[in-house]
Amino acid sequence: MTGWYIGFTIGVIVVLVVVALVVPILLLAHKIGKQAAAINATLGKAERNTRPLTDLTTTINHAEVITAGLRRGRERLGG
User: Fold this and answer.
1) Torsion angle, CA of 54/55/61/63, rounded to 10 degrees?
2) What span, in angstroms and rounded, lies between the C-alpha atoms of 29 and 35?
3) Which pLDDT score, from 0 to 100, does residue 3 have?
4) How far apart are CA 7 and CA 24, in angstroms?
5) pTM (2 decimals)?
6) In the chain, how long is the greatest CA-to-CA distance?
7) Could you give the 3-state DSSP secondary structure of residue 30?
8) 5/30 Cα distance (integer angstroms)
9) First-to-last CA distance in the chain?
10) Per-residue pLDDT for the chain (79 aa), expressed as one digit of tens each?
């Protein structure tokens, strides 16, 4: 009968150790999950704020066409 008590005690100790190790991991995962939602929202705002930069190439191309036209006009005028 003593063997049963020792085995049961060891089993309870193992379960308590596992719970003691798993609970902090679960709490940390919950905290990370809450922070991930806030980070995702902030990244969405950053994407929305920088979206107009995709049109920058078009603006540069138009500016180059305009300056080339101005350069040709200046050359024709002798300048």
Assistant:
1) -130
2) 10
3) 87
4) 27
5) 0.51
6) 113
7) helix
8) 37
9) 111
10) 888 999 999 999 999 999 999 999 999 999 999 999 999 999 999 999 999 888 899 999 999 999 999 999 999 998 6
- Position 79 scores a pLDDT of 66
Instruction: Write down the domain spans for the chain.
Output: 2-76
- Using alpha carbons, select from 39, 36, 57 the residue that is nearest to residue 47: 39
Chain CA centroid to CA 51, Å:
17
SS3 state at 78: coil
The two tokens of residue 5 are 């008590």
Quick one: tokens of 44? 């969405």
Q: Quote the CA–CA distance of 61 and 69 in Å, as a whole number.
A: 12
Q: How far apart are CA 32 and CA 67, in angstroms?
A: 52
